[in-house]
Every structure is written in structure tokens, then in C-alpha cells.
Write a structure and sequence with these properties.
The protein is α/β, with parallel strands linked by helices. The protein folds into two domains: about 290 residues, Zn peptidases (Aminopeptidase, 3-Layer(aba) Sandwich); about 130 residues, Alpha-Beta Plaits, CATH 3.30.70. It has ten helices and 16 strands. A six-stranded mixed β-sheet has the order 1-2-6-3-7-15. Strands 10-11-9-12 form a four-stranded antiparallel β-sheet, with helices on one face. Helix 1 packs antiparallel against helix 10 and helix 6 packs across helix 7. It is elongated and about 85 Å long. The relative contact order is 0.19. The model has no long low-confidence stretch (mean pLDDT about 95). It binds zinc ion (ZN).
Amino acid sequence: MPTDAVAREALFRRIGERREELVALTRDLIRIPTVNPPGDAYTDCAELIGRRLAARGFQVEYVRGVGAAGDSDRYPRTNVVARIEGPRPGPCVHFNGHIDVVPAGEGWTVDPFAGVVKDGRVYGRGACDMKGGIAASIIAVEALLDEGLLPAGALEVSGTVDEESGGYGGVGHLAKLGYFSRPRVDHVIIPEPLNVDRVCIGHRGVWWAEIETRGRVAHGSMPFLGNCAVRHMGAVLHRIEEELIPRLAAKRTAMPVVPEGARQSTININAIHGGQREDHDGLPSPMVPDRCRMVIDRRYLIEEDPGEVRAEIVAILEDLRRNRAGFEYELREVLAFLPTMTDADAPVVRAVAAAIETVLGQPATQVVSPGTYDQKHVVRVGQLKDCIAYGPGILDLAHQPDEYVGIDDMVHSAQVMALSVLSLMNSR
Ligand SMILES: [Zn+2]
């Protein structure tokens, strides 16, 4: 099995020669507007990947996330899993990319679904997060096959749905069916946009909850006859502002989270609503609101106890219930994922870090993502620890207008991915 310099150079050259093909594939993927929500065109995108890999001898399966939130005949949650076996048994390396993208939103200077190429970059919604990464991984595995460098083991590529909305219909669904467990798979690389020179070993935890305060309606000119739910929520916000946010800022982590600002515990107020609806043209009527709802997004650290994360909020709410006249509340958990972090010296971490150093001529940086991604399902449901994110996109551009991926970065990341496979295949 040649891992020597000659084979490596041939592999790198092969990938370099396929630069235009890599750009074309990225553009083709961007042109399929797999917007989530609602989950448009998933089947078209899954089939583009499936057809391409079937032509290279992969066994291709389409697995629909039946029963997942949002799955319907109009918006089927179509995942694709492609696998090719080497002539001898050995480890399996799996590349997993999510095919869904967030809505384009405002502020674009180019068509978000045209795949515009300019200044050495491909622009479009999903270019960075993460169709550029999917394209790079496909070119990487094709180059390995072209060079006859799959003597043992297996390679898998999957295109999965709904990562942006929790991944339940995608990697979560496949993991439950055993697609992300041993003995089928040994190493997983997720080409999320964490920058071409960094290995992402995990993510912080997340806890989303909805708080509802209750009151009693009355005429707005006599608020003392009612009980204002919005003022109660104001009291909750005040406690979050004055007590919780400073306390969270003091909780620092040993996780190498990027950007630096996320190397602590955080809370975001995702949404707040109280009183009459605003989506009408007329004047409002004078009412004391009897309900106010707020959604909070709490991101926490591997050093924190998940129970404590909830208890901090409950303590504030219970204290208000005891001490604030007329205060009533309800707390509902919306979503929860534990923090995860792969060992710094796990095989996939070492292989990708070494490949980065070879390709880019500089040491790799280990990072942790501020937000979660599909690694949580691989680790928790699939019980597979040897999983990282590595891809060409620039983290800060994800979900932004004029999102792009650098073409040089895609080529380099494809070389890193291919070299990583070679060393993982030879590691046992
Ligand atoms: Zn992503």
C-alpha cells in the first residue's frame, strides 16, 4: 500500500487536475435549492449525489426519514448513502454532508441559487455550509479510486437532510438504523465549514426552552384591574440580564471553542411575544396581556451539568413566583443536546491533523464549534466516537448573505480528506 511520497504526489496532482470539476459539482449542488424549512428539493439533490457515485461503482441507497418532523410526500426527507468496498476487509471511512441549506434571506448581491463563480470563489446559499465540503469529499474519494488507492476497507459518502433543524430526519434517523455504528463504519468526517486548516472535535451543548408567563386580561386604561404577563416577563428578563448573563460569562471552558467569544456559557433570547398580534393594519385595542412567551437558547460547556443548566432558569422563575405578586409561569423544553468532544488523540483527529500539515505546510488547529451539528447523533445514537468535522468553508460566512467557498480551499481540503483516508486505511 503506497503511502509514500510518490503515491501522495500523484493523488494531490489528480485532485489539482480536477479543480474545474470540483467547481462544477459545487455549482450543480448550489443550483438545487434545498431550502430548510420546508425541505425543498431534497430528493433531487440526493439523487444527484447518488447517480454520480453509482456511476463509480458505489452501492447507493436512498433512505427516507419517515416520521421525522416535516416529512411528507410533498417534502420527503430523502437521504442518500453510498458505499464502495475494497477488495479486502478493513476499516470504513465515512464522509457525511448535510444537503439542506437555510433560506437565502436578504442582502445578497448575487443570485443565491445560481452558483456564481468570481474571484476564485463559488458564491451561493450553501456554498460554505456545506455544499463546497460535500463536493470536496466526493472529489477526494473519486481521486482515491482513480489512483487505485482502495486496497482494503470501504468508503462511504452520505448526503443527509435537516441538519439545520436538528438532523432528526437525516443523520439522527440513519444513526437509529445503524448506519453510523460499528462494525459498519469506523471513522466519520463531516465537511462542515470549520476552515481548511482546523480540525473540529466537537460542539457545545444546547438547551432550548420556552417560558410562558401568565396574567389576566383587563382594560388597558385600568391596568391595575388586570395582571400584565409582559411585565412579568420583563422581570424574568431583568434577572437574566442582571444575574444569569454575568454568571454565564464567568463560566470558562477548556474546550477550544471558536470564535473566542463562545469559549464560555451563553444565552440568547431567540423570540419573545406578548399581547395582541401585530400582523394586521389597524390600531390595537387597549388590553392588558394575559400571556407572554419567550424562547431561550442556552449553549453550555462540557464542564457543566445539563441538569444545572435547567436548574438555573427554574431557580429564577421559582424565586419570582414566591416573591412577585401574581407571577405564574410554565417552562417547556424545546430541544436539548449534550456537549460532545472527541479525544484529541483519536485516530481520525490525528490523521486529519497530519494531512493538514502535509498539504498546507502548517500545523492544524483543534477547535470546537459554538453550535451543534450532526456529530451529536453519530456519537450519542451511533455510539461512534471517532468523528470530527473538517471542511473548506469559512465558519463566519455560514448562513450569511453572499456566502461563498474559496476554490483553493476546496482543492486543499479534498487533498487533506484523501490523504486522511489513506492513513486511516493503513492504521490497522
Ligand atoms: Zn452546516
